[in-house]
Design a protein that fits this description.
Mean pLDDT: 92
CATH class: Alpha Beta
Number of strands: 5
Structural class: alpha+beta
Strand content: 25-35%
Strand order of the largest sheet: 1-3-4-5-2
Number of domains: 1
Helix content: 10-25%
């Protein structure tokens, strides 16, 4: 994975439009090594609960040892999705995540990857140049265990529907 502190990625050619997200399609991508330093840095800035910051507190918690914040896991997932396909897509944003779970903790030393499954794809009636894609994204650790699962919607420009409406160019 690229250095998360690096500058914004340069523009990439568009490879994926709404038509490339067929229902049932599964994409597997990404590789993110979780470091102790990153866990501590994220927790210190955004989720300073003791089990994310202190070995003794973590040992006494349900995790049993230092664990990454679930929100840190979400941030790592977003980076993998950007590098895996979003930065090369005609993505137009998202109204949000509908379901999010952290079925297992993430620990320093874990190596994460992603699996994305398209659940629904349809054009928007109100904006025919835009398609909706509902998908399930799962983050897996090096043992194939799901550590994050989320379902949500993204909007993508359609390839073959004419010029985009004003504001979407």
């Amino acid at each position: 994975m690229n250095d998360p502190v690096s500058s914004a990625p340069s523009a990439r050619p568009i490879r994926y439009h709404w038509e490339d997200f067929e229902v049932g399609r599964v994409r597997e991508f990404g590789r993110c090594e979780v470091t102790r330093e990153a866990v501590l840095e994220f927790a210190g800035r955004y989720d300073p609960q003791p089990f994310h910051l202190d070995d003794d507190a973590a040992a006494a918690s349900l995790f049993g040892r230092l664990a990454a914040s679930g929100w840190h896991t979400c941030a790592m997932a977003m980076r993998m999705m950007c590098e895996g396909y979003l930065l090369e897509s005609a993505a137009l944003g998202s109204p949000g995540v509908e379901r999010l779970t952290w079925p297992a903790p993430v620990f320093p030393g874990d190596v994460l990857s992603m699996r994305n499954t398209v659940l629904e794809a349809r054009p928007l009636a109100s904006r025919p140049q835009v398609g909706l894609v509902r998908s399930r994204s799962e983050v897996l650790n090096q043992d194939g265990q799901v550590v994050l699962s989320m379902e949500g919607v993204g909007f993508f420009r359609r390839r073959d529907s004419g010029p985009p409406p004003a504001g979407l160019a």
